[in-house]
Amino acid sequence: MFKKLLMLAIVVLLVVTVMVGCGLGAMDAEDAQDDPKEDVADNDNATETDDDKKEPAEDAIVIKISNGINDKHPAYIGQKKFEEIVEEQTDGRYDIQVYHSAQLGDDIKATQDVRMGNLEMVCTSSSPLTGMSKELMVFDLPFLFASEEIADKVLDGPIGDKIGKTLEDKNLVNLAYFENGFRQLTNSKREVKTPDDVKGLKIRTMENPIHLAAWKAIGANPTPMPFSEVFTAMQQETIDGQENPIPTIYLQKFYEVQDYTSLTKHVYTPFLVLINKDLWESFSEEDQEIFINAVNEARDLERELNRQMNSDLVDELRNEGMTVTELSAEQIKAFQEKCAPVYDKFADQIGKELVDEVLEATK
Ligand code: KDG
After folding, report:
1. Residue 121 needs a FRET pair 20 to 30 A away by CA distance; which of 47, 85, 267, 296 works?
2. What is the pLDDT of residue 272?
3. Left, alpha or beta for 250 (phi > 0: left; psi -120 to 50: alpha)?
4. Cβ of 237: how many Cβ atoms within 10 Å?
């Protein structure tokens, strides 16, 4: 099934490339062989990943967009779809350049660059940005969303819109929520079925106070770190584990340095697709409409691919030698109870009214 999915992803990417008609090369064969680990390149080698992309027209408006995961992830495929639609519908008046694997910096740096106008767009997890908007922390509350459907309802509705707007005073406009997904725990030490099994494990978390507090409450020894440093830290055993959705665990080849995955499904993380507000406000209404339609179509494709991979790649992880542990409802409940105190601990900081509103909307 995964091979079919991969074929679908490649076909989508090829169609994206051909339809643009501006010589965007299909994902370069070399790229496709690239070891994702090596994709986490330093900024000096940052190059837009369609090596044979046609030179942009003299007066094309260049829009660079950055993401921290590699070019096999649905987030990248979704951004390429966005690129195809915008360039086609504006007759090439915009030159969208998609950069993966944190080539332009990790989430916080890239987002700061978008704020300052040094970069046009970023597709970033919400969790590292809570220093810019405390309301974003609501998405980090453990076990908040029970399903993708509930997540979509909240994110694509008035609550998601209201939370996205809290970034506008930071010169950022959120165009849509892509899906990072439900996060699962991996480690290199032992199979994890209960919070007791987590005791003392050095777990990398995103740079986010709720993630740190939740894993401390569960019994781990959490350490915050940018995504681009995680693989090396696991390889050098400076951390024992990390937590990310299945597509990321597989596509970043974490199975090469991790032996166990526990399907904790402890947090649903959205991606924000952010654009510099000054730039956005310089667009005509017609172009803004093209961007919004394009990002929504790209979002739907990205979520569909991410969900398909989320179910298909569990067995692929087993095929790569990982022990993947399904947790019973009782076992999940034990994790839920351990980290429940973070709700009270952070409610006032997030805004009690917003927390209650989101909880109500998840019913
Ligand atoms: O840009 C997205 C990645 O950098 C990162 O946010 C992915 O979930 C992620 C993590 O664990 O940092």
Report:
1. 267
2. 98
3. alpha
4. 11
Confidence of residue 163 (pLDDT cuts 50, 70, 90): very high
Indicate the pTM of the whole model.
0.87
User: Distance between CA 201 and CA 357 in Å, rounded?
Assistant: 34
Share of the chain above pLDDT 70, in %: 84
Mean pLDDT, residues 80-106: 97
* 181-236 pLDDT, tens digit each: 999 999 999 999 999 999 999 999 999 999 999 999 999 999 999 999 999 999 99
Looking at residue 24, its pLDDT comes to 39
Long-range contacts of 103-108 (CB under 8 A, 24+ apart): 103/39, 103/41, 103/43, 103/45, 103/46, 103/47, 103/66, 104/43, 104/46, 104/64, 104/66, 105/43, 105/66, 106/68, 106/226, 106/227, 106/228, 107/68, 107/226, 107/227, 108/207, 108/226
Reported as type and span, the H/E element at residue 358 is: helix 352-361
Assign 8 a pLDDT band (cuts: 50, 70, 90): low
Rounded distance between C-alpha atoms, residue 311 and residue 151, angstroms: 17
Q: Please tell me the residue having the least CA distance from ligand 1 atom 10.
A: 227
69 lines ligand 1 (CB under 6 A): yes
Ligand 1 proximity of 126 Cβ (cutoff 6 Å) = no
> Which residue's alpha carbon is at the smallest distance from atom 4 of ligand 1?
68
Give the chain's length: 363
For residues 13 and 77, the answer to whether their CB atoms sit within 8 Å is yes
Q: Which atom of ligand 1 is found nearest the CA of 123?
A: 1
For 97, how many CA atoms within 13 A lie in the half-sphere containing its CB?
20
**DSSP-derived secondary structure for 34-79:** S-HHHHS--GGG---S-TTPPPPPTT-EEEEEE-SS-TTSHHHHHH
**Other CB atoms within 10 Å distance of the CB of residue 92:** 17
Q: From the CA of 57, how far away is ligand 1's center (Å)?
A: 33
The phi, psi pair for 155, rounded to 5°, reads -70, -40
More confident residue, 36 or 5: 5
Structural contact between residues 246 and 121, judged by C-beta atoms closer than 8 angstroms: no
